[in-house]
Amino acid sequence: MTTNTRTVAVILAGGIGVRVGLGIPKQLIKIAGKAIVEHTLEVLEASSHIDEILIVMNAGSLRELDELKDPQRFPKLTRIIPGGDTRNDSTQAALAVLGDDPRTKVLFHDAVRPFVDDRILRDCVDALDDYEAVDTAIPSADTIIQVDSASHITRIPDRSQLRRGQTPQAFRLGTIRHAYELANQDRSFHATDDCGVVFTYLPDVPIYVVDGTPENMKVTEPIDVHIADKLFQLQSESLSASPESPDLTGKTIVVFGGSYGIGASIVELARAAGADVHEFSRSSTGTDVRFRGRVKKALKSVYEKTGKIDAVIMSAGVLRVGPLATTKVRDIETSIETNFLAPVIVSRAAHRYLRETHGQVLLFTSSSYTRGRANYGVYSASKAAVVNLTQALAEEWADDEVRINCINPQRTKTPMREAAFGDEPAGTLLDADIVASVSLRVLASAITGQIVTVRVEQPEPEG
């Protein structure tokens, strides 16, 4: 077994994103508040199996990555270089700057595969102790057919022996360099990936395959952007399962709507976690979140007293049930103003303070945001708007390092819900303290632009 060899991860970000159709290189599309390439870089930076990182970027968009050149945040990132016209050209651009040690382990990974996990990285690096070339792949769930120019099936391979290729593809530096040297002597050379170069020009070199994961998807088509966004949301749900309570000692937190329900639970738990909590509501302080002046006054008073604000939570809301056609216009306006306009007002007013602390806004939506519910459609629509607001502001505020997230609690036992729906079966509602506990873990995390779902735990069936 070879030891003490350097391991370099090369992020291939040379694509221009024609298929994704959003007018910018796909690796720069923002999901969950960050460009896809940034998410990918964070995974590789966090891996103990990677010593150094190199990005090969579309030459026309090279300057878009200048903000990633941060030694404090990404100490493993040593350089960002322009790529070529093809993937193979970009690979060779990286090979040209990777030094002379042929034993160096090199992992080539697509910038638009942000869900690669540390197990895959470890398996690729470990496999290079015994092999010179390694691929990542998953079994094919679909039958693969081969067709001719007339679109007639000519062959149906055995699916059990087929795999769908992913990245990373990993190599000994000397091996992949030699393969490209031979390929460049072939005028008919064409390959869509780096393992294909080794397979074609070094046929005696076995290529080992490690198991990928379905989540390690490549963002290529427009629908992939939506799937990736949902995967980030599912990742953030792990916060719901964590039993750990964060330490909020020294944090200054402002809670609007903290006099009852989830807001009151947040105030209590945050104080128990060491935070300096300032609560505002109509009933306790006369603060109506629908009015910009009152919100600004509340935030200013906290800032003047403490000198900083680390987080602002907006948990106030109203829920009125009834047919839209017979609901009073003023009740409709109040619902929209409280459930959507107020989060806008609070977020806007909080930004100036959170920019100083690189803090976070935490908003609340409802499980009804995914589908409008009869008899409270205005409420559902407003909560859907809060989700869109969260995702949009995560992008707007990324440069200021201000985070914004949204809690999506399933039905929760609160005075507001009880007033709207009356008594409901025991065990079907979340306890407000559970939602509050997840909310505090989100505050203590580094995520942004996430819709964090909190669900009722269903009991395991007996027998």
What does this entry look like structurally?
There is one protein chain. This protein is α/β, with parallel strands linked by helices. It folds into two domains: 7-220, Alpha-Beta Complex (Spore Coat Polysaccharide Biosynthesis Protein SpsA, Chain A); 237-454, Rossmann fold (3-Layer(aba) Sandwich). The protein is built from 14 helices and 19 strands. Helix 4 (173-183) packs across helix 5 (194-201) and helix 11 (329-357) runs parallel beside helix 12 (377-396). The chain is elongated, with a radius of gyration of 26 Å. Catalyzes the formation of 4-diphosphocytidyl-2-C-methyl-D-erythritol from CTP and 2-C-methyl-D-erythritol 4-phosphate (MEP). It catalyses: 2-C-methyl-D-erythritol 4-phosphate + CTP + H(+) = 4-CDP-2-C-methyl-D-erythritol + diphosphate. Keywords: Isoprene biosynthesis, Nucleotidyltransferase, Transferase.
Task: Briefly characterize the structure.
It catalyses: 2-C-methyl-D-erythritol 4-phosphate + CTP + H(+) = 4-CDP-2-C-methyl-D-erythritol + diphosphate. It comes from Microbacterium phyllosphaerae. The protein has 463 residues and is an alpha/beta fold.
In DSSP terms, counting alpha (H) and pi (I) runs of 4 or more, how many helices?
14
The separation of the N and C termini measures: 50 Å
The radius of gyration computed from the alpha-carbon positions, rounded to a whole number of angstroms, is 26 Å
CATH class of the largest domain reads Alpha Beta
The gross shape turns out to be: elongated
User: How confident overall, as mean pLDDT?
Assistant: 88
Tell me roughly what share of residues is in helical segments: 25-40%
Task: Give the name of the CATH architecture of the largest domain.
Answer: 3-Layer(aba) Sandwich
- Beta-strand percentage? 15-25%
GO molecular function: 2-C-methyl-D-erythritol 4-phosphate cytidylyltransferase activity
Pfam families: adh_short, IspD
Catalytic activity: 2-C-methyl-D-erythritol 4-phosphate + CTP + H(+) = 4-CDP-2-C-methyl-D-erythritol + diphosphate
Pathway: Isoprenoid biosynthesis; isopentenyl diphosphate biosynthesis via DXP pathway; isopentenyl diphosphate from 1-deoxy-D-xylulose 5-phosphate: step 2/6
